[in-house]
Amino acid sequence: MNPYRGTRDFLPDEMAVRQAVFSEFYRVVEIYGFERYDGPLLEPVEIYEAKSGREIADQQLYSLTDRSGRRLALRPEMTPSVARMVARFSGQLDFPLRWYSHVNCHRYERPQRGRVREHWQINCDIFGSASEVCESEIFDLIHALMAGVGATRDDYLLRVNCRIIAESAMRHIVGISEQAMPEVFGIIDRWEKSDEDARIADLIGAGLDQRQIERLGTVLTGDRNVMDELPDEDLRDSNVAKLLKCSESNLFRFDPLIIRAFEYYTSTVFEVFDTDSDNRRSLFGGGRYANLAGLFTKKDIPGIGFGMGDVTMLDFLDTHDLLPTPQLGSDVVVVPVSLEMNDAARSVARSLRAVGMKAVLPLLERSLSTEMKRAVRNKNRVVVIVGEAEWRRGAVTVRDLGSRAQSEVAIDRVVTQVQEILTE
Question: CATH 3.40.50.800 region(s) of the chain?
Fold first, then answer.
């Protein structure tokens, strides 16, 4: 039987690859001072209806009603949950916070390359600071995460925009109303996925005339010089505008096409794109929220963060031949030659495990030759054979499956001998 469409089974070989990738991500994130948290899989539907955007709330939620009549949903993303948690414990937290999580999320989407219905996502957020230093720290972290799995700056592109800048450009250059902005931003968010005729039809449907459409095209295909036409007071609260004036601008490319549809983003927005023509797509993204926790508390708690999904990142690593090849299975197999030697074999395995070596014992009664063939198939490095005669002499047989060398080793030297083979 196959799993539910859009969900996945992970066998040990695939889990080993995932574990190697995620462990590296954890290492890098924690170097930057982020602390891990977690939260419930089920949340009230209302927090997603209020903060996640109409597409998620109306089309992608897995929702249910419990026996008490409460409307709940499987989390489609982690940001509203962490905002609720930060608000709940704000009186006892020492701000600013650097938090991260690695959780599974569920969205009812059409499964395709890069999209499934259950995915795992690493989320990194800073809460409690509106400073542009947070943007620099987040962008630095993104580059460190990519470098940690072997990617170079040529393999991906960090594209950054600011909704403050975008809204000012819509008002002062394009000339559209506040009421039309959400619809126009939705069109911009789909810009690179639509052809020109479809974009023009959507913009006309949103109420733009030909002159406004031409001005919008100029804004979206321009560069940072567009800000020269905007009032200084509109740019005062834009951290992106501040970063573009200093050396930190080398961390990203300013790109007016980056909007992101989530309703909680209020200024900085960004996405990381694969530059390979075989996988030219967004890998992950995030942004700044002035007060996401405002749904749960009257305190102003600004934040910035991003979510990195497992599907797109593993596709990226596969595209660039960067997937790791971790060794599966155990380092050592300890094989008793008879049932009578099981206790002795277990004592040897315990001594190896005590120093951190992965050692296994046979779980079925099989011949020595069968166990040796299995060890070769499983790519084990060493087999320790516990025979009756050798054990009476205070020894065991150690066989190096790489060199095929075999020797009798004193029991109190087994750990040292195996360690030497494994480090060769």
Answer: 332-422
Specify whether domain 332-422 bears CATH 3.40.50.2000.
Answer: no
Residue 150: Cβ-neighbour burial (10 angstroms; 0-12, 13-18, 19+) = middle
pLDDT (tens digit, 9 = 90+) per residue, 168-187?
999 999 999 888 888 998 89
Buried b (16+ CB within 10 A) or exposed e, 1-27: eeeeebeeeeeeeeebbbeebeeebbe
User: What is the residue type of 312?
Assistant: T
Summarised one tens digit per residue, pLDDT across range 304-318 is 999 999 999 999 999
CATH 3.30.930.10 residue ranges in the chain?
12-319
Q: pLDDT for 106-149, tens place per residue? A: 999 888 887 899 999 999 999 999 999 999 999 999 999 999 99
Topology (CATH level 3) of domain 12-319: BirA Bifunctional Protein; domain 2 (3.30.930)
Output helix, strand, coil percentages for the chain, rounded to the nearest 5.
45, 20, 35
Quick one: 375 exposed, middle or buried, by C-beta within 10 A (0-12, 13-18, 19+)?
A: buried
Other C-beta atoms lying within 10 Å of the C-beta of residue 363: 6
Spatial distance between the Cα atoms of 40 and 290, rounded to a whole number of angstroms:
24
> 234: which strand partners?
none
Task: Provide the pLDDT for residue 306.
Answer: 96
The answer to whether 72 and 63 are in contact (CB under 8 A) is yes
Distance between CA 285 and CA 187 in Å, rounded? Answer: 18
Q: Alpha-carbon distance 45 to 48, whole Å?
A: 6
